[in-house]
Amino acid sequence: MTGEPEPISAQARRALEQELADLREERRLVAGTLRDTTSVGDQADQADELQRADQLQRLDRRIEDIGERLDRADLAGPAPTDVVGVGSTVGVRFPDGSTESLQIGEVAEALDQPLVTADSPLGRALLGRRPGDTVHYDTPDGPATAVVVSIGTDGPS
């Protein structure tokens, strides 16, 4: 990602907000198991305390990351509908005639529809394109193309 504010879909926002709520609850539970570190215990107790403290740090980092991502999405506003961007739902047609509706998103987004990350070969090829544009991208099987059919919530037409 570029670090610039990027929109996310409403569905992805709900998924991130749910993950955030789950992480906060997990953090509350883990924090409740920590004891006073000044008390004397055996090495196993101390190792267990250190493991839980490390877990709290990981949870805190993820909570902070999600909070920052949601803040950046608020600054960015809604996903674009005139050009493909992060958060767009894009209808694409492949050379075999098949069409598919894809969400341009981030790895953190849990969606019911196919997700193409913005930093994948197809995602990079789609960014900034408009309906009617042909995109070229690399796959493990070699070069490929697709045509942007639609942008928005409609999917392929």
UniProtKB/TrEMBL annotation:
<dbReference type="GO" id="GO:0032784">
    <property type="term" value="P:regulation of DNA-templated transcription elongation"/>
</dbReference>
<dbReference type="InterPro" id="IPR036805">
    <property type="entry name" value="Tscrpt_elong_fac_GreA/B_N_sf"/>
</dbReference>
<dbReference type="GO" id="GO:0070063">
    <property type="term" value="F:RNA polymerase binding"/>
</dbReference>
<keyword id="KW-0804">Transcription</keyword>
<feature type="domain" description="Transcription elongation factor GreA/GreB C-terminal">
    <location>
        <begin position="80"/>
        <end position="151"/>
    </location>
</feature>
<dbReference type="Pfam" id="PF01272">
    <property type="entry name" value="GreA_GreB"/>
</dbReference>
<keyword id="KW-0251">Elongation factor</keyword>
<keyword id="KW-0648">Protein biosynthesis</keyword>
<dbReference type="InterPro" id="IPR036953">
    <property type="entry name" value="GreA/GreB_C_sf"/>
</dbReference>
<dbReference type="GO" id="GO:0006354">
    <property type="term" value="P:DNA-templated transcription elongation"/>
</dbReference>
<dbReference type="InterPro" id="IPR022691">
    <property type="entry name" value="Tscrpt_elong_fac_GreA/B_N"/>
</dbReference>
<dbReference type="GO" id="GO:0003677">
    <property type="term" value="F:DNA binding"/>
</dbReference>
<feature type="region of interest" description="Disordered">
    <location>
        <begin position="123"/>
        <end position="143"/>
    </location>
</feature>
<feature type="region of interest" description="Disordered">
    <location>
        <begin position="34"/>
        <end position="53"/>
    </location>
</feature>
<feature type="compositionally biased region" description="Basic and acidic residues">
    <location>
        <begin position="130"/>
        <end position="139"/>
    </location>
</feature>
<feature type="domain" description="Transcription elongation factor GreA/GreB N-terminal">
    <location>
        <begin position="7"/>
        <end position="73"/>
    </location>
</feature>
<dbReference type="GO" id="GO:0003746">
    <property type="term" value="F:translation elongation factor activity"/>
</dbReference>
<dbReference type="InterPro" id="IPR001437">
    <property type="entry name" value="Tscrpt_elong_fac_GreA/B_C"/>
</dbReference>
<dbReference type="Pfam" id="PF03449">
    <property type="entry name" value="GreA_GreB_N"/>
</dbReference>
<keyword id="KW-0805">Transcription regulation</keyword>
<protein>
    <submittedName>
        <fullName>GreA/GreB family elongation factor</fullName>
    </submittedName>
</protein>
<dbReference type="InterPro" id="IPR023459">
    <property type="entry name" value="Tscrpt_elong_fac_GreA/B_fam"/>
</dbReference>
